[in-house]
Specification:
The complex is a heterodimer of chains A (about 130) and B (about 80). Chain A has about 130 residues and is of the alpha+beta class. Helix content of chain A is about 45%, strand content about 15%. Chain A starts with 16 loop residues before the first helix and ends in an 11-residue tail after the last helix. In chain A, a hairpin with a 2-residue loop joins strand 3 and strand 4. Chain B is of the alpha+beta class and about 80 residues long. Helix content of chain B is about 30%, strand content about 25%. Chain B contains two helices and three strands; from the N terminus they run αββαβ. Chain B has a three-stranded mixed sheet. In chain B, helix 1 packs across helix 2. Chain B is globular, with a radius of gyration of 12 Å. The N and C termini of chain B lie far apart (about 35 Å). Classes of the chains: A alpha+beta (about 130), B alpha+beta (about 80).
């Protein structure tokens, strides 16, 4: 299931509907074409926000290949991803087209082992994290 | 721009009247909070859906006036 609630999204009034639709199409394409996508501030090599950096660290720790999308590079994308997911903050993690959550949820799921399980179910190879 | 913790609690409770809300001002700057919200409404919902309910209670302040709110949501035991 994809949280793709265009109707309830926080549409920025400054944006025309067509521009928002096209940015939503672009987002849909990226999450269709990549098993694991992290919409983040900065790049995986150089995160520009502590919350984005934490999720990068978790994915790296699990050895998960992922596509990082820098929302700071594109103002329309930065607003578009919020309405696409009906989620007000960055980072946002998608696995197999499904919105998993932001930093808090990803960290919680990592600590409980659920993130590894979900990645495994999605067919994404992840190294088993050390638990303790 | 900052937001009082009492205002955060009021907004959450106005949308989720049964909620027990605990808020910590993490940095003492009125800008970085951690909130634990316990409500029956969360039962059977995914974490994403639970957090979306809280964000929607905050009426668009999250990501705006409210810069950082670390959320923990759960149904009552």
């Amino acid at each position: 299931m994809i949280y793709n609630s265009h109707a309830r999204g926080t549409l920025n009034s400054a944006m025309k509907g067509s521009a928002m639709a096209s940015i939503h199409d672009q987002i849909q394409n990226v999450i269709n074409e990549n098993a694991v996508v992290l919409f983040m501030k900065g790049t995986p090599q150089a995160p520009q926000c502590g919350f984005s950096g934490q999720v990068v660290q978790i994915l790296n720790h699990l050895g998960v290949p992922f596509k990082g999308v820098n929302v700071l590079a594109d103002g329309e994308l930065r607003e578009g991803i919020k309405s696409f997911s009906n989620w007000p903050t960055i980072p946002q993690l998608y696995v197999k087209g499904e919105f998993v959550g932001g930093c808090d949820i990803v960290r919680e799921m990592f600590q409980s082992g659920e993130l590894t399980d979900q990645l495994g179910k999605a067919g994404v190879p992840a190294a088993q994290p050390a638990r303790g | 721009m900052a937001m009082e913790s009492a205002e955060i609690e009021r907004l959450i409770k106005s949308a989720l009247p049964d909620a027990k809300v605990e808020i910590q001002d993490l940095a003492g700057d009125g800008d970085h909070y951690a909130a634990t919200v316990v409500s029956e409404v969360f039962r059977g919902k995914s974490r994403v859906q639970q957090h979306q309910l809280v964000y929607s209670a905050l009426k668009g302040q999250m990501g705006g006036a409210l810069h950082a709110l670390a959320l923990t949501t759960l149904p009552p035991e």
